[in-house]
Design a protein that fits this description.
Blueprint: H1 2-7, H2 12-40, H3 44-47, H4 50-94, H5 98-119, H6 126-141, H7 149-169, H8 176-196, H9 199-202
Helix pairs in contact: 2-4, 4-5, 5-6, 5-8, 6-7, 7-8
């Protein structure tokens, strides 16, 4: 992160959250080292663990601060990536990459959908989710290419949809954690396929 700060970033929000993470680490690392030194030296034998309890409390607070800052950094990076993807999508459409643009839009919308289902698992908008699934499916069905990755993309999309529906089936399912993990894993497999697609091949263009 320090290296990225030296290089600079075009996204102000990412820079801000990165700096907050670095500040949290500057607070956490010294406490961690002091706590480790206290334990290694067995100083707790001389003070009834008083200093250890004090350091432990500070350490827990510092870790919580770091976790919160790191979470916000992740959100900022995700938002920045989404913004850049939207810009790339418009460029692909403009440059005539119809098939790849459709796959990109489908992926962008599926990403949002998985996030939404995960966040609202206790009370999902089933009708809204099914509507979005249908529209994403239409995007993928509209792709006209001989590239073998289309079949893999559709297959993994269908697997993700099945997992999404399982999550929504019963919020009180005792295996809901497993259902959520399956949804994320299926989505990650979809992303793996998407990342292998080459625009020129998907739209049968020759450079």
């Amino acid at each position: 992160m320090k290296k990225s700060k030296e290089i600079g970033n075009t996204y102000k929000e990412v820079d801000t959250e990165r700096d907050n993470v670095l500040a949290a680490l500057d607070e956490l690392v010294p406490i961690s080292k002091e706590l480790a030194s206290y334990s290694d030296s067995k100083a707790y034998l001389n003070d009834g663990k008083a200093k250890g309890n004090e350091l432990a409390a500070k350490y827990v607070a510092a870790v919580e601060k770091f976790n919160a800052a790191y979470g916000k950094l992740g959100d900022a990076v995700k938002a920045a990536n989404k913004e850049q993807t939207k810009k790339n999508l418009e460029k692909m459409k403009k440059d005539g990459y119809k098939n790849y643009a459709a796959a990109m839009e489908a992926t962008l919308r599926l990403t949002d959908l998985v996030d939404k289902v995960e966040a609202t698992q206790s009370n999902p908008d089933k009708a809204g989710v099914e509507k979005e699934i249908g529209e994403i499916q239409a995007l993928l069905n509209g792709i006209d290419t001989k590239d073998s990755y289309k079949e893999s993309l559709v297959r993994n999309f269908n697997d993700t949809v099945g997992a999404i529906r399982q999550v929504m089936a019963d919020p009180n399912d005792k295996y809901q954690d497993r259902n959520l993990n399956r949804m994320v894993q299926s989505f990650n497999h979809y992303i793996d396929v998407y990342n292998r697609i080459k625009p020129d091949s998907f739209d049968e263009k020759k450079k």
